[in-house]
Amino acid sequence: MKKILSILTILVLSFSSLFAASMSPRVRSLPKNLQEQIFIDPKENIIDFTKALTNGIGDTASKVKVIHDWICDNIAYDCNVFTKEGAGEQGYEAVLKKRKAVCVGYANLMAVMCKIVNIEAEIVYGWSKGFLYPGYLQEESDHAWNAIKIGNSWKLIDVTWDAGFVERRTFIKRYTNQWYNLKPSQFIYSHLPEEEKWQLLPEKQIRSHEQFEKEPYISGVFFEYGLSLGKNAPNYKNEIIEATSFDFTSSNPKVSLTGDIKNDSSGVVVKQAVWFENSGNTKKFTFDVPDKENYTVGLGARINGVTNNPPYFFKADFEQNVFPKAQNLLAQKKITKNEFDLFEKAYYFVEQNGKYYFDEDLFNNPRNSANTKILKLLERNTSRYETVLSFELKAAEDYSGFGKDVRRFPQMHGNYVNSSKIQVNSPFTGSLKKGSEQHFSITTNAFSHFAIVLPENEFVFFTKNQKNGSFELDFTIPENVEKITIFASKNKRDFPALFSYDVK
């Protein structure tokens, strides 16, 4: 008996996606009585309802997309799976009556609705790299998804993961289409079917169990950002003996990347344990760990300037900062009473999680616009990074890490991250000792001047080495500073901060 426990297969790392706002408006366009009857008497109404939902749509792909979107919009993940009673029957009738399902229920409903409109559909059972994935394949598979035939080829779709995510036994509705748009060669990084044929890959690309376990978790949206693995790609589990680099490539110049390292037991992010080098299409990350504990690396992506609001706020932050400051905006007449009311009703509190979640409704444009406007006025991050890839990292047996309470790399500022082809040769560390002699060396053609700015606005400029083209400075770290920041300029007038060293 298969363990279709989709808590193992719903990702808490994904949250809402930048590429989520593409749900077909047809899912809300059917007459109200027809929408209601499908949940009251599914067996009697499923055929007429599905035909009405897809009526007038000529191509198979668009029909499949509408069915996928309707299920995501109307069926919640059944968190009763965590109780002794369990989620119960997962046939399409039970799913529609409860308006809840686990993965096999989602897949059953998707297959039934597709077959009603003469679209071939199969349920695929297999393993997945979802939340709580232990890093290896267990004896029994843990997930179910669909294979749908469109034209002469099959398409893999995971409706469960596109409907939302589970956090502490609470389902949070967050529509995406990232598990609808993937090619089989992309889908395979997160889904391994029991039957090899449903990989839908050429023979040379077929994944064994061992290879699937070895590869990192890659979300569907990773590919929508135009990202791909470089020549030096991480495994799912990585043991290192020193600072180690991995590269990725990007076809979208507007995409920014970030990375962090989080301690698995404490959940604390290690400061300055990641270094980034942007060389145009090639993005190189260097990671290190402070000790022998287990760590998880998360790679985040965003498109600069494109709205991607946070999906939640912690209770204290929302009640003490976000909401009172929104009230102040109303008092100052920077927003209207209607905008404030829309904002107030847009969030709901989940006691178990201690968070206020945004109540997603992709078709409520006034509320969504009001939410974005208020968050921008509050200077909250409305162009956030979302995790697109993750893997485990730990020190090998003969490596003890770079040390606790140490900054491994300099602190990167936004101007450094968004600049390309800057190589820091030395000092390549996060901490400098007061009174120490340091040789600073930077190689780049992105800027023409570099300087350290001391107290009282005193500039100490680098000199360009004519032999190797690098910018260099021999400098004694002052006793009266806590931080050394490197500034750069293209015109010797504007000097944005690039990166900083702690001084101890």
Walk me through what this model shows:
By secondary structure, the chain is α+β, with helices and mostly antiparallel strands. 24% of the residues lie in helices and 30% in strands. The protein has 13 helices and 30 strands. The strands form 8 sheets. Strands 21, 23, 25, 26, 29 and 30 form a 6-stranded mixed sheet that branches. Strands 9, 11, 13, 16 and 20 form a 5-stranded mixed sheet that branches. It has a 4-stranded antiparallel sheet with strand order 5-4-3-8. Strand 18 (347-350) and strand 19 (355-358) form a beta hairpin. It is globular and about 80 Å long.
Features of this protein?
alpha+beta; 504 residues; disordered N terminus; globular; 5-stranded mixed sheet
